[in-house]
Design brief:
Blueprint: H1 3-10, H2 22-38, E1 47-51, H3 57-62, E2 68-73, H4 76-88, E3 94-98, E4 110-115, H5 125-134, E5 136-147, H6 151-163, H7 180-189, E6 193-203, E7 208-212, E8 218-224
Parallel strand pairs: 1-2, 1-4, 2-3, 4-5
Antiparallel strand pairs: 5-8, 6-7, 6-8
Bound molecules: S-adenosylmethionine (SAM).
Length: 225
């Protein structure tokens, strides 16, 4: 099954916290915390773009903190899931776009552009970050997550997680994982500034994700213009 069909299949259970997406829901709590801790005050005046928003887990979780939140995803079924969820939750300051992010054409800029669980799914991370930069407002911030390209991440996120059903089979391609050093090189080439790297660990035994000094598996970054 290719990635697009996999995500369409997963759309049915996207918000089921006991499904094979439970780790995504667990890790989402740390993403929300990371964004809110690092974004300063007056968020009610600010806008956020959630790139590759999937079924809207992050979009819906942060929407109330911002003036306006936009989610964009290439997958029609996932955008439908996002729209339904936002409606059910009574959230009104959020919109969704169903489009390939690389073709997203808008006059808007955003105070925050989020790239969670997408860098390790694209062949050209430089192009992704360049596009994100082009959509940033003057003092804008990019937040991203990535899976490190290490032996331990391969064992944990592919061999164990996929084979034990903790995450769906075929979710990840080790060749697309990036080390923080590789991303830092791209960030420098784009004249962006890496402000923070935060390790994140996930314990499948209790389904709890937490911040960690260890970046060898999952990590977040805060990047400014
Ligand atoms: C692993 S899911 C992550 C979903 C969401 N970011 C989250 O973490 O809750 C990856 C998502 O990237 C989307 N995607 C992949 N390539 C894309 C592109 N070029 N433009 C927009 N969305 C894309 C897929 O449709 C899928 O929803």
């Amino acid at each position: 099954m290719n990635q697009s069909s996999l995500f369409s299949e997963l759309s049915k259970n996207w918000w089921n916290k006991n499904s094979s997406l439970k780790s995504l829901h667990a890790i989402n709590k740390t993403r929300v915390e990371y964004i809110l801790i690092n974004s300063g005050k007056l968020l009610k005046n600010k806008t956020l773009l959630d790139v590759a928003c999937g079924g809207g887990i992050l979009t819906a979780s942060v929407a109330n903190a911002f003036r306006h939140t936009t989610g964009i995803d290439i997958n029609e079924k996932l955008i439908a899931v996002s729209k339904n969820k936002i409606k059910d939750m009574g959230i009104e300051n959020t919109s969704f776009v169903c489009e390939d992010f690389f073709n997203f054409d808008t006059d808007e800029t955003y105070d925050f552009v989020c790239l969670f669980e997408i860098i390790e799914h694209v062949a050209n991370p430089m192009k992704l970050l360049e596009k994100a930069k082009s959509l940033l407002s003057k003092n804008g911030v990019i937040y991203l997550s990535c899976i490190n390209k290490t032996f331990i991440s391969k064992i944990l996120t592919i061999h164990l997680a996929e084979n034990l059903g903790i995450i769906p089979k075929g979710t990840h391609d080790f060749n697309l994982y990036k080390t923080p050093h590789e991303l830092k090189k791209i960030i420098d080439q784009l004249n962006l500034n890496l402000k923070d790297i935060q390790g994140v660990k996930y314990n499948p035994l209790n389904n709890i994700a937490s911040f960690s000094d260890d970046t060898s598996v999952n990590y977040f970054m805060k990047i400014t213009k």
